[in-house]
Design a protein that fits this description.
46% of the residues lie in helices and 14% in strands. It has 437 residues and is an alpha/beta fold. It has 2 domains: 197 residues, NAD(P)-binding Rossmann-like Domain (Rossmann fold), CATH 3.40.50; 196 residues, NAD(P)-binding Rossmann-like Domain (Rossmann fold), CATH 3.40.50.720. The strands form 3 sheets. The protein has a 6-stranded parallel beta sheet, with helices on both faces. Strands 11-10-9-12-13-14 form a 6-stranded parallel beta sheet. Strands 7-8 form a two-stranded parallel sheet. The radius of gyration is 23 Å and the shape is globular. The structure holds nicotinamide-adenine-dinucleotide (NAD).
């Protein structure tokens, strides 16, 4: 199969590299020349474990190429995937579909022979109809189908998720499109990945339903954590106690500073807006969005309380900036709200992140960046763990105690054991674990 991937970001690049690894011939396109030039030199513009090697081997084998020239990538392709961004629209929270529609117009002009255009981007219900309309209007003579194939990979584990998905969702009722997409994914269903074929609208909505459900699960355990703190219970044990029930499942039950990242915040908001527009409001999702928004700044208040009620003039060391470990993605990371709130309260913030510093510099002001965790902590009045990178779990706690001016640790990811911390003489505050845990 010949595949064109429009958009070579976290999803497009991983999907393109994995498709080429299945044996397809893939052209990855992006409109940012710096990204494409870097990829052509063998440099990966994002941090994703395993991606460098996967891209290198498939590029070398001649199956994976990079270009800014959408036209020649699309002409001759059996399937054209749209994997451009769909961020929140400024002001109203609806998904901004301008990149998708622009890509559709460009693709239309380049179509040559029967082609399946597939939206991999997360798009509101009905977007496929509009993409189809745009293409038909631009190129009335074109032979094509528009399908939805939402992506469920997680950053940080993206290659494994793509190659061993829980399911593959194909939204189309065009028989030829189903045949092409089944051929594209054939290596995976040989591995018995379930393929679900639905209508286009159902596939589009299913992606949002999945993200909203996961965001709800996180928000549920976060509120439970607040209650645990008040009643002297341990949220990690509550999570285990409910998670072992197969009807509930143990995943996404880690209490923390609130969900962030490039998907959940924008997708819950967009779903909420769609539902309101169709006069079928999703009140549960609306509440999840509101609770999560408040939570991030509440985490800064937790730090201020741990510091004795004020952080004015104090230096706070922040470990971890990305929205989760093993990525450099800073979009909507909880650290952004926590740090800004601490700065608003008069604190000076020094931060360290293994991979996210370059992106953080573009999004935060007046933050000092350290080259490693101990350098970040040295002389600080308190330490806040915001992202649970593995390297933070194994830090030398005695060395931390010596480095800190005051032995205060606020652990927003529960990576340390309360009794160890108390035994070492730390003032230790975590999430949903009463002081005795
Ligand atoms: P991204 O911002 O990393 O990448 C998008 C890329 O598309 C950018 O490099 C941009 O330059 C390029 N682009 C935009 N318009 C273009 C055009 N007309 N032609 C060529 N290139 C163009 O975004 P992402 O994180 O990869 O997300 C893409 C989509 O996938 C979004 O809808 C997102 O919601 C969805 N998604 C993301 C994830 C994730 O973990 N990041 C997971 C599942 C689904």
């Amino acid at each position: 199969m010949r595949i064109a991937m429009i958009g070579s970001g976290y999803v497009g690049l991983v999907s393109g590299a994995c498709f080429s690894d299945f044996g397809h011939v893939v052209a990855c396109v992006d409109k940012m020349p710096v990204k494409i030039e870097a990829l052509q030199r063998g440099e990966i513009p994002i941090f994703e474990p395993g991606l460098q090697a996967l891209v290198a081997s498939n590029a070398q084998a001649g199956r994976l190429s990079f270009s800014t020239d959408l036209k020649s990538a699309v002409a001759g392709a059996d399937a054209v995937f749209i994997a451009v961004g769909t961020p929140s629209r400024r002001g109203d929270g609806f998904a901004d579909l301008s990149y998708v529609y622009q890509a559709a117009r460009e693709i239309a002009l380049a179509l040559d022979g029967y082609t399946v255009i597939v939206t991999k981007s997360t798009v509101p219900v009905g977007t496929g109809d509009e993409v189809e309309r745009i293409i038909r209007e631009t190129r009335p003579d074109a032979d094509f189908a528009v399908a939805s194939n939402p992506e469920f990979l997680r950053e940080g584990a993206a290659i494994a998720d793509f190659k061993r998905p829980d399911r593959i969702l194909l939204g189309t009722d065009d028989e030829r499109a189903i045949e092409v997409l089944k051929e594209v994914y054939r290596p995976l269903y040989l591995n018995q990945a379930p393929i679900l074929v639905t209508s286009r609208r159902t596939a589009e909505l299913t992606k949002y339903a999945a993200n909203a459900f996961l965001a709800t699960k996180i928000t549920f355990i976060n509120e439970m954590a607040d209650l645990c703190e008040q009643v002297g219970a341990n949220v990690q044990e509550v999570a285990r106690g409910i998670g072992l029930d197969n009807r509930i499942g143990g995943k996404f039950l880690h209490a923390g500073p609130g969900y962030g990242g490039s998907c959940f915040p924008k997708d819950t908001l967009a779903l909420m807006k769609t539902a309101q527009e169709y006069d079928a409001p999703l009140r549960l999702v609306e509440t999840v969005v509101a609770v999560n928004d408040k939570r991030k700044r509440a985490m800064a208040r937790k730090v201020i309380t741990a510091c004795g009620g004020s952080v004015r003039g104090k230096t706070i060391a922040v470990l971890g900036l990305t929205f989760k470990p093993n990525t450099d993605d800073m979009r909507d990371a909880p650290s952004l709200s926590v740090i800004t709130a601490l700065q608003d309260a008069g604190a000076r913030v020094r931060a360290y992140d293994p991979e996210g510093t370059d992106n953080a510099r573009l999004m935060l002001e007046n933050v000092d960046y350290a080259g490693d965790a101990y350098g970040c902590i040295e002389g600080a009045d308190a330490l806040v763990v915001v992202t649970e990178w593995d390297e933070f779990r194994a830090l030398d706690l005695d060395r931390i105690k010596q480095a800190l001016r005051e032995p205060v640790i606020v652990d927003l990811r529960n990576i340390y054991r309360t009794e160890d911390m108390h035994a070492r003489g730390f003032t230790y505050v975590s999430v949903g674990r009463a002081a005795s845990y």
